[in-house]
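Morning - MD3 inputs below, output right after.
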Amino acid sequence: MTGDLLEGLAAPAMEPLAEGAVVLRGFARAEAPALLAAVAAVTAAAPLRHLITPGGLRMSVAMTNCGEAGWVSDRRGYRYDPRDPDTGRLWPAMPSVFRALAGRAAEAAGYAALAPTACLVNRYRPGARLSLHQDRDELDLDAPIVSVSLGLPATFLFGGLARSDRPRRVRLEHGDVAVWGGPSRLAFHGIDPLKDGEHPLAGRCRWNLTFRKAR
Ligand code: MD3
Ligand code: FE
């Protein structure tokens, strides 16, 4: 009885994935309503859009950004841009609830408090996917990336430093926060096609926020 209780209390909220990479299970769960309200404010100011890859394909994930710079893609390539190319306006400011969460998550994972300059907001509808890629457009590759999953669960693909390394599959659920730094910062990763479902707070939808030191 006591043993079960202690085991319950000691249940690892922190799940190491690889050197430098950890999942903090449920770390953002209590704040999810506030985070989703902030997402709604960001998408009202900078609407979601399906970016075109340099190869001419339309991404199935819809994206927008907040902060000093936003990640964009078009026929010319990938880059961080201080302005929304659709409107010519600056991206909306990063909500303080976003900034604070990213800083706390980095610290909980053993990194120095992150001061993110950019937040990429990804929206997955059923069927949307993100094929294996590396995140290497950021100026500071020493800073970790913090990612927050909200809404429907997804299967995350976590590969190695070579595209050909067979990826592991990790389920990311509502409220999970992951921190990717050190040797894992340049790992190939992606998201399997989102399974249909209904989430009580997010509906038929998954949101992912990634906090980056872009410039
Ligand atoms: C591992 N997003 O926006 S989050 C992306 O769920 C992206 O929308 C996915 O990949 C999503 O670029 C995955 C987890 C993640 C984010 C960045 C990483 C894992 C990472 C950077 C390096 C290594
Ligand atoms: Fe990525």
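Note: Residues 120, 122, 130, 135, 145, 147, 178, 180, 184-185, 187, 189, 191, 208, 210 surround MD3 (ligand 1) (CB under 6 Å).

O.
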